[in-house]
Amino acid sequence: MRVGLLPKEGGGTYRFTILLLATIGILISSLPVIVVTIMSFSASEYSSFPPTEFSLRWYGEVLQLFTNEDPSSAQSVVDSTVTSLLVALLVMVISTLVCIPLAYALARSNRNLREGMELLFTLPLVFPLVMLGIAFLLIAESLQVDLGIWRIVIPHVALVLPFVLRNCLSSMNGISVEIEEAAISLGASPLRAIWDVVIPLMKAGILAGLIFALIISFNEFTVTFFMYTIDVSTLPIWMYSRTVSSLDPATLALSVFIIVVDVFLVVLVDKLIAGRGNLF
Fold it and tell me: Which residues does residue 54 pair with via DSSP β-bridges, in sequence order?
């Protein structure tokens, strides 16, 4: 039986309070997106809010940036986008390869060990990102080795691991050990039971973790700001370089493209976690 959150009768104050808090929360979370979206349709040369005229001028400018070389910029938006996608892909693969066996081991371990390991992997989230970026920069410089793209990949893996691990662990918690035992009793080896039974049942959590890793890595700026070089730079760094002196309206239009893709991926994660979606 489904119970409505908001009572229809006799709950006027409660209903009003819930609606008011929900409205405030929605406004706070969506207001920056709304402002950026509206300003991206401005027809003027300089960004101002609210725009006095509207056009698709800056969306056309974004398409030109991707198809023509921009002599005014030292960095190419195409190269920055390719680097961001490559970094995100590597982060997705590495974090998943780490978190699947880790989630399995933690789910089958005792409670104290599991809580301790979960706390340990959550540490990057409680560190100020600025300090985390400085720490990774000091480590990279002390190595005195050209790490190339791994200068950015390794910090990003540290940032996404808590999210991927929690999604894999949530899926693993719903898999009873009796299912594995049943597969083993039918002749499967322990490794074969994990590969053929456990991992398929973890699929929703694994895919949700992959998508979170993609979103977080692709949009990450603070730590990347300390780690990027002139040869290895990401799209958020390119967008920052276009707005550091004056706000470039083309970056607002590009932001809208990224927001649309991110929203689609978040909706897909929601459907995967709820069991209403499938990537394959």
Answer: 42
Q: Could you read off the pLDDT of 106-119 as tens digits, one per residue?
A: 888 887 887 788 77
* Number of Cβ within a 10 Å radius of residue 18: 14
Q: Is the pLDDT of residue 10 over 70?
A: no
Residue 5 pLDDT > 70, yes or no? no
DSSP secondary structure, 138-166, as one string = HHHHHHTS--TTHHHHHHHHHHHHHHHHH
The pLDDT tens digits for 130-188 are 998 999 999 998 988 888 899 999 999 999 998 998 888 888 888 888 888 888 888 88
Q: What is the 3-state secondary structure of 239-270?
A: HHHHHCCCCCHHHHHHHHHHHHHHHHHHHHHH
At 245, list the tokens.
Answer: 């002196």
- Give DSSP secondary structure letters for 193-236: HIIIIIHHHTHHHHHHHHHHHHHHHHH--HHHHHH--SSS--HH
58 CB contacts (<8 Å, ≥6 apart)? 40, 41, 42, 249, 250, 252, 253
Instruction: List % helix, strand, coil for the chain (3-state, nearest 5).
Output: 75, 0, 25
Tokens 């940036």 found at:
65
Residue written as token pair 């603070």 = 222
Residue 60 backbone class (left: φ over 0; alpha: ψ -120 to 50; beta: rest):
alpha
Q: Looking at the whole model, is its pTM more than 0.85?
A: no
Q: What are phi and psi of 42, to 5 degrees?
A: -70, 145
